[in-house]
């Protein structure tokens, strides 16, 4: 089910942006985002704010003009059973890809 798309008209989204619907992870959880270009370039991060995850994913995707670039946002939490920072990943909340027309297309993964 399509959720939105962005026309790449420069380095930032324009007023043509159709926003993603709200994403909800686990209460008190984290949002891990990553974007991968077809050349192997990867941009990733983690935040506790769903809006920040969405904005950073879109920004990363805008920096990857190549067809075949894709990205995801998924829920995560810190694993309390180990003595070092390790994430336990939950479900994928959002998937995006760069389509042939140059648009960043998002689809609900639920």
- The low-confidence runs, each spanning 5 or more residues with pLDDT under 50, are 1-22
How many helices? 1
Order of helices and strands: EEEHEEE
Spatial arrangement of strands, main beta sheet: 1-6-5-4-2-3
How much of the residues is beta strand, in percent?
35-45%
Q: What's the domain count?
A: 1
Fraction of residues in helix: 10-25%
- Summed over residues and divided by their number, the pLDDT gives a mean of 77
The tally of beta strands, per DSSP, is: 6
Query: Given the C-alpha coordinates, what overall shape results?
Result: elongated
Summing up helix and strand content along with how strands pair, one would put the structural category as mainly beta
**Main β sheet profile:** 6 strands, antiparallel
Distance between the termini: 9 Å
Provide the gyration radius in Å: 14 Å
Walk me through this protein's architecture.
With 110 residues, the chain is mainly beta. The chain has one domain. Helices cover 12% and strands 42% of the residues. It contains one helix and six strands. A six-stranded antiparallel beta sheet has the order 1-6-5-4-2-3, covered by helices on one side. The longest helix is centred in the middle third of the chain and has 13 residues, at 50-62. The termini are close together. The model is unreliable at 1-22 (pLDDT under 50).
């Amino acid at each position: 089910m399509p959720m939105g798309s962005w026309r790449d008209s420069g380095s930032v989204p324009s007023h043509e942006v159709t926003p993603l619907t709200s994403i909800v992870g686990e209460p008190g959880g984290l949002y891990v985002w990553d974007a991968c270009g077809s050349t192997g370039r990867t941009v990733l991060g983690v935040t506790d704010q769903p809006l920040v995850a969405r904005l950073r994913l879109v920004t990363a995707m805008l920096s990857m003009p190549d067809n075949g670039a894709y990205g995801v946002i998924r829920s995560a939490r810190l694993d309390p059973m180990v003595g070092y920072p390790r994430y336990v990943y939950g479900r994928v909340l959002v998937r995006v890809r760069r389509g042939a027309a140059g648009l960043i297309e998002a689809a609900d993964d639920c």
